[in-house]
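Q: Given only this backbone (218 positions), what sequence would you predict?
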């Protein structure tokens, strides 16, 4: 799918392209921020714990994901979405080898207007094949984004956090009550959205929240 060579890994990727993906190495054990040493907490998670148990992200947001993810998200290249979901499923099998995995998936919602403009929610499209592969329920009607925040791109972290306070509302708590929920998004940047959505899920009765995404921005 990337170099047009023969796919030889059981996915639509050749071995060389698979190896060269920007795999995320040592990282914060809560928010997956790339760090020089594994198993530590980043400064932000130390001073202000994020509320979620951990972020599972196989990749850094770097080449070629910084073109594949926008191609999927803005130009509906669904094949790239499927490929990334497959790679995330493989990472999830590794991540939960020794620990209990979440019991249901909740995609991070877009605000109604933005979703109407884009025509689909990339987080839901990613979560669908993952839920199928792991045989877990996908709950799309749980969270709603009630605040149309301006694009977060280019804003300093503090401002993103301020923008996102009260950005989500839980409109149906039954599927998540007492459950360990996996919140699914495509890319985690400052973590402001997932922190805000995690808070909303916990307030609505979720037992625990973990975050699953394709890539983490350094
Ligand atoms: Zn290749
Ligand atoms: Zn952290």
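A: Predicted residues:
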């Amino acid at each position: 799918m990337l170099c047009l060579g023969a796919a030889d890994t059981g996915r639509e990727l050749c071995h060389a392209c698979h190896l060269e993906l920007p795999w995320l190495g040592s990282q914060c054990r809560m928010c997956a921020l790339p760090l020089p040493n594994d198993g530590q907490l980043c400064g932000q998670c130390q001073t202000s714990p994020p509320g979620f148990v951990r972020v599972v992200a196989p990749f850094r947001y770097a080449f070629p994901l910084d073109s594949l993810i926008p191609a999927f998200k803005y130009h509906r290249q669904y094949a790239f979405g499927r490929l990334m979901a497959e790679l995330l499923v493989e990472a999830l099998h590794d991540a939960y080898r020794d620990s209990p995995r979440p019991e249901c998936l909740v995609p991070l919602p877009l605000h109604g207007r933005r979703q109407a403009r884009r025509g689909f929610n990339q987080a839901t499209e990613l979560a669908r094949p993952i839920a199928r592969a792991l045989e877990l329920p996908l709950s799309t009607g749980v969270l709603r984004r009630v605040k149309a925040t301006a694009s977060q791109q280019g804003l300093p972290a503090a401002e993103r956090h301020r923008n996102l306070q009260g950005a989500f509302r839980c409109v149906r708590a039954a599927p998540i009550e007492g459950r360990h929920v996996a919140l699914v998004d495509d890319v985690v940047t400052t973590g402001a959205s997932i922190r805000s959505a995690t808070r909303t899920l916990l307030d609505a009765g979720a037992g625990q929240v973990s975050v699953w995404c394709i890539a983490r921005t350094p």
